Amino acid sequence: QGLMAGKRGLVMGVANNRSIAWGIAKAIHAHGGTVGFTYQGDALRKRVEPLAAELGGLVAGHCDVTDTASLDACFAKVEEEWGGIDFLVHAIAFSDKDELTGRYVDTSEQNFSKTMLISCYSLTAVAQRAEKLMNKGGSILTLTYYGAEKVMPHYNVMGVAKAALEASVRYLAVDLGPKGIRVNAISAGPIKTLAASGIGDFRYILKWNEYNAPLRRTVTTDEVGDVGLYLCSDLSRSVTGEIHHADSGYHVVG
Ligand code: 0WD
Questions:
Q1: Amino acid 176: pLDDT
Q2: Least packed by Cβ within 10 Å: which of 97, 103, 183, 230?
Q3: Is pTM beyond 0.95 here?
Q4: For residue 97, which phi and psi values (nearest 5 degrees)?
């Protein structure tokens, strides 16, 4: 029973119970969907396994998107267990925190490449693999931030990577559309997660959003989870290539 009844999919990017990916996984599960999880390395395995168990989900294994073998292994596991998937959530990003402060102009080539690989290219890498498992169509969802559209203090190279990620959403939507596979992004307002704690002056950004967003508050992972539920479900069956803001409306004033 429910909006996601009979639907199965992979949620990548749960680090702990404050992760946006976890908010989305909970919402999908609450509406009858079955969720598979990947974790990055042994340290996160200890956090992700109990969370997956809480939702009766599948643990697809270790996946570091910079390691093709681990990516292939996770998708192989999912294919073996389920045959196919209906949705895939990509909630993965990384940049050296020394470069998430100060000036963008000082970005190193090495961190630029690494940030682009993990935060942007990885969506395409997972889409290639998801396409093979979405024979009945499906929904691919990623997470982006307003720093892709406007310069936000300290977001720097991550803003450039998110701009490329948003462009990737549009190109992937066109390529995969004929197969009934939709590709969208949620542009989430700032939330205090592990990844966000690497961004300089993050508390100030939260306050700024709280004072200036039309709804006069920040957003929660559960709220972003509900938007994720909509984009993964058939309710959004006519929506693809979209960057959907879930930010208390901040983007209309920021
Ligand atoms: O304010 C925020 N928190 C916002 C986050 C606002 C708007 C967008 N986002 C985005 C992030 O950029 C990211 O794409 O949402 C996505 C999820 O981020 P999150 O929920 O804020 O952060 P977190 O709970 O830390 O999850 C991100 C995870 C990693 O966690 P850590 O903190 O350990 O780096 O991405 C995963 C990892 O689990 N990750 C990787 N997964 C596979 N391979 C890799 C990798 N190489 N690198 C990071």
A1: 99
A2: 103
A3: yes
A4: -65, -20
The number of domains in the chain is: 1
Please return the burial class of 225, using the count of CB atoms within 10 Å of its CB with bins 0-12, 13-18 and 19+: buried
Q: Is 194 annotated as a binding residue?
A: yes
So what's the pLDDT on residue 254?
Answer: 87
| Low-confidence stretches of the chain (pLDDT beneath 70) | 1
Here the tokens at position 179 are 């197969």
Q: Which atom of ligand 1 approaches the CA of 162 most closely?
A: 12
Report yes or no on 213 lying in a domain.
no
Instruction: Indicate if the alpha-carbon torsion angle 92, 97, 100, 106 is positive or negative.
Output: negative
Ligand 1 proximity of 66 Cβ (cutoff 6 Å): yes
Measure the CA–CA gap between 233 and 31, rounded to whole angstroms. 10
Backbone dihedral angles phi then psi of residue 155, each to the nearest 5 degrees? -75, -30
Q: Going by C-beta distance under 8 Å and a sequence separation of 6 or more, which residues neighbour residue 107?
A: 99, 156, 157
Three-state DSSP class for 87?
strand
